[in-house]
Structure formats: structure tokens, C-alpha cells
TrEMBL record:
UniProt KW Lipoprotein keyword: no
Molecular function terms from GO: endonuclease activity
Restriction endonuclease type II NgoFVII N-terminal domain boundaries: 14-131
Protein keywords: Endonuclease, Hydrolase, Nuclease
Lineage: Bacteria, Bacillati, Bacillota, Bacilli, Lactobacillales
Domain of life: Bacteria
Protein name: NgoFVII family restriction endonuclease
InterPro entries: RE_NgoFVII_N (IPR019065)
Organism: Latilactobacillus sakei
Pfam families in alphabetical order: RE_NgoFVII
UniProt key word Nuclease: yes
Length: 315
């Protein structure tokens, strides 16, 4: 029977098994650059492949920058972001040894400080074909340093958009009272965070994100699309592939659909960019920049539910 741990996970799983291993492969829903840096500092010669499975829903700029910096520092490290739906919430660690032994653990702990130190999680030794799982994950992923990664993944700056295990991950030493206060603030602010927010009259969706490069922004593509934030994919409301009809306050009609593989993208079949550039009073041939939106005073489109399966766009 395999070993089971529900305490001292860092000691029992990482320290006890990594010291003689030649490689560690991880699949984790969420991951922390701070935690990965800690492991790399303790085992600088250990080859590590980390696959993050929840990244189709976004990752914070701080974590993204941290992962890229670690890859630049360690030639023996690879960090992969899954780019396709459905997301992966598996937690699996496989330690590989020079004599071809593989020791694997799976359970509830994400590859984070919270998963291995702060929260009550459990991990069990498992006899599974981990190689097949890692190969499958690799096919759905790109390296975090890939030049096109920001076209596939939302790299967000707003701390209120942090997911599950990323909450307080960058600031582990915050006092309990402060965390409680932040939690209440997040509840109060939840309907105002940047993203595709369900409102009683429809949705509010960003034209582009502050950290978007204009040439890469979905709204500036030949086939324009809007991108939902990590906290509310479009598939929460719309069926993938289903035609959605939008009207504007100026009488335009647009049709759109949500991509089945990328649930945070809504593609438009007509030139919605020209509608926005006209509102911004810039040439339709110009790339829309975030500074244009700031000057206009609005960064979001309001998609008003008309109650008849059509929506009106307000901007």
C-alpha cells in the first residue's frame, strides 16, 4: 500500500524524494512562482517540468513574470501553461531516478505555498502511468516564455482577479486581520472587477486589457474577438458555437460566437473594430490602444440583454 500524507507535505513529499532524484515532473491546477523558486533554490541541479492546468482562465502578471525569471535563471527548468479548454485540476508529482525508478504522488495539494504549507491537503503515493499524463499535458500547453503565450493566456494585473490558490500566495506574511479585511473588500468589489461580469442587465466586457500589446489584442485582429477575464468565461452564459446577435445604439447588427476550445474568446463575424474606432474618433485603420480607451473614458462594452436572445452594445 502506498504512503499517505496529510501533514508536513513539503518535508514528506518534496525534501524526502527530491534529494536523490534526477527529474521532477508536476501537473498542478495552480502554481506559485515563489514556491517554485524555493524548490529550485533547495535543488538547483534537479530537472523540473511544471505544467499548470488552470491557465486557460488566466494567470497574474506577478506570477507570470516570476516563472519567466526562474526559467531565465535555471536551464534545467521548464514551466508550461495549458492553453486549451477544458482546464486541468490534476495534482500529480513524479520523481524520476537514475536507476529508472519513478515515485509518484497525487492528491489535493497544488504546487504552491498554500498547498504544501498553509492549507490542510493530502497526497498519496500512486502507481500510475504518469508519463502518459505528462505527454498529454505537454500537447495542450506552451512554455511560459513562448512569444505567443499572451495571445492564448490572459496575463492580468488586478489582484482581485486572483484565483483560488493564488490568493495571498504572493504575500504569505499578511496578518490575519488584514486578510479578513481584504476578503470582505473582494466580496464588495466582486461585481466591479475588470472582466466579463454578469450584471442584472447583461455583461460588461473589456475592449482590451491594460497589459495587452496593441498588435496582439483580440479587437485588432483580422477576425476580431473580445476576451473575458479569468473569473467569468463566456461559456458560463453562451453555448460554444451558438450564434449571438448584437445590435448597437446606432443601428448596426453584429453576429458573434464563443470559441469551443477557448471559452474566454467571443469572435465577431463583422468588423466590430470599426464601430469602436468611430466612437473613439480615430481612423478605422489604426490599432486600438489602451490609451485611446482612457482618453474616451470607457474601457468596457456594455452588452445589454434584450430578453429576446439578442443583446444591445453600448459604448
Amino acid at each position: 500500500m502506498g504512503k499517505f500524507y496529510d501533514s508536513a507535505l513539503y518535508q514528506n513529499i518534496i525534501l524526502n524524494n527530491a534529494k536523490n532524484a534526477v527529474k521532477l515532473c508536476i501537473v498542478s491546477g495552480y502554481g506559485s512562482a515563489a514556491f517554485l523558486g524555493r524548490v529550485m533554490a533547495e535543488f538547483p541541479k534537479l530537472n523540473i517540468d511544471l505544467y499548470l492546468g488552470m491557465t486557460p482562465q488566466g494567470i497574474s502578471k506577478r506570477n507570470h513574470s516570476g516563472f519567466k525569471a526562474l526559467m531565465a535563471r535555471y536551464d534545467n527548468l521548464n514551466v508550461f501553461y495549458q492553453i486549451n479548454e477544458p482546464v486541468t485540476h490534476i495534482k500529480l508529482l513524479s520523481f524520476m531516478y537514475s536507476d529508472a525508478r519513478i515515485i509518484s504522488f497525487n492528491g489535493s495539494a497544488n504546487f504552491t505555498e498554500n498547498g504544501f504549507f498553509n492549507w490542510h491537503e493530502s497526497m498519496s503515493e500512486a502507481e500510475i502511468d504518469s508519463a502518459a499524463i505528462f505527454e498529454c499535458q505537454k500537447m495542450e500547453s506552451k512554455l511560459c516564455i513562448d512569444k505567443s503565450i499572451e495571445l492564448d493566456i490572459n496575463i492580468y494585473e488586478d489582484e482581485t482577479l486572483k484565483l483560488e490558490d493564488e490568493i495571498a500566495e504572493d504575500d504569505i506574511q499578511i496578518e490575519a486581520g488584514t486578510i479578513a479585511e481584504q476578503s470582505e473588500n473582494k466580496k464588495a468589489q466582486s461585481k466591479f472587477v475588470v472582466g466579463s461580469k454578469k450584471l442584472h442587465y447583461g455583461f460588461e466586457v473589456p475592449v482590451l486589457f491594460e497589459n495587452d500589446k496593441s498588435k496582439q489584442a483580440g479587437i485588432n485582429q483580422k477576425k476580431p474577438y473580445l476576451t473575458a477575464s479569468n473569473n467569468a468565461p463566456f461559456t458560463a452564459t453562451f453555448k460554444p458555437g451558438e450564434k449571438i446577435i448584437f445590435k448597437t445604439d446606432e443601428g448596426n447588427i453584429f453576429t458573434a460566437y464563443v470559441d469551443e476550445r477557448k471559452s474566454r474568446r467571443m469572435y465577431f463575424e463583422q468588423d466590430i473594430k470599426s464601430y469602436i474606432t468611430k466612437k473613439l474618433n480615430i481612423s478605422k485603420d489604426n490599432l486600438i490602444e489602451y490609451s485611446d480607451l482612457l482618453r474616451y473614458g470607457k474601457q468596457h462594452l456594455l452588452l445589454e440583454d434584450n430578453g429576446d436572445k439578442t443583446y444591445t452594445i453600448h459604448f
